[in-house]
Amino acid sequence: MNPPAKDTRTPVTLLTGWLGAGKTTLLNRILADPHGHKFAVLVNEFGNIGVDDRLVTKSSEDLVELSNGCICCTVRGDLVKTLKRLRRRRPPLFKRREFDWVLVETTGIAEPAPLLRTFLVESDISVAYRVEAVVGMTDARNLEIALKEASAVEQIALADLLILNKIDLVPDHKTGHAFQRLQEINPAAPIVKTQNADLPVSEILMPREPRGLADLQTTSSNHESQHPHHNMKAISLRCEHPLDEMKVQLWLDACATMLEGKLMRYKGFLQLHQRPYRAVLQGVYELYSVEAGEEWQKDELRSSELVFI
To answer: Which residue has the higher pLDDT, 309 or 10?
Structure first.
C-alpha cells in the first residue's frame, strides 16, 4: 500500500432513493446552483431525462446540453460504455467533453450496489472515476411504505449521506420516528432533514469518508442494532492496537467469502502496523478496497474503527 497521493480521478456522486423521495428535485437544485462545477449527469432511467425542460438547451442523440454548460444523458444500457464514451474525444475539433464531476441519478427501484461495483471492479472506470459519496433520499411521509421494499432498505443501508426529505408534510413525532428508523438501518451515515430537498450543494458534494465511531448515530463502540422487519444488523468494531496488514486482508477476505450475499456494506479506518497513515476501508458485498488515507496526527489517538451492515 503506497502513501497517499493526489487523486486526479473525476469525482462521482450517486443519488439514490425510493420512488417519490425527491431525487430529481435535488438534482435540479444542484444544477441550478452557481457552484462553478460542470457536471456530466447520468440518469439511470428508462424514459425521459429527469431534469426540468428549462434547463435543456439542445440535444444530440441521447446527450443533452444544459443551459449551465453541463451535459446530461439517459443511461438505458451499459453504464461502463457511457462513462467511457464521455471521456472520448469527439469530432470535429476532437476535444473532450468538459466536465469536472459526474452525477448519477438512479431509478427509484434500483439497488445501488451494482453501480458501486462498477466503480470498484471495472479497471477502465476505477482509474478515471472515484465515488465521493452515495446520497440516499428518503421520504419522511412515506418511509414506512418504502421500507417494505428490499431495494429501498438497501438504498438506505449503502448510503454515505441520508437526506430525510418532506419533513414539512408530517408532524414532528413522525419525523422523529423516521429519523430513528434510518439510524437503525445505517448508523454510519449522517442524516440531514430537509423540506423540498433544500440543502447546500456543498453538503451534497462533500467527500464522505468513513466516520469515527464517536461520530456515529450510536453510543457504543461495539454496537449491534437490528431492523425488526428486514433482519438488518449494523455492527461497529473498534481496536486500539496496531493491526497486521496481511492478517487484516485474510480476515476481510474470509468475511467477504463466508458472508457472501449477507454483508451489504462495510467501511471504516484501519490502524496498520508501521503505517504512518490511516487506511480507509470501503466494501460492498464481496468487493472491498483498502486505500491510504490521511496521515495520523502527532497527538491523535490511533485506532481501527469499522462498521458492518
So the answer is: 10
